[in-house]
Amino acid sequence: MTQSNAPREPAPEPPRVSEGGDACGARHVQDRVGRQYDETLGQSIHEESGAGAFRVLRPGEAHTLEYRADRLNVRLDEDGVITAIGCG
For residue 82, what are the domain limits? Predict the structure, then answer.
């Protein structure tokens, strides 16, 4: 078995979110994490974020995996409590 002593290229840097990279407005609604979700709260989150699209992700429900920078995802736990809000 031969080994090459040639230097390896470093791994690429992970993508960085720039200040302007919050296309879905998630940073404006992070204070809702930990609250019980209902439709009224969802509507206010969507409006305040300014997101182009909005969806709620509940455990066990199917959802598409394509990434959309302008879409706000609200993740809930089994009890309907918001666990995360982010773009995608």
Answer: 26-87
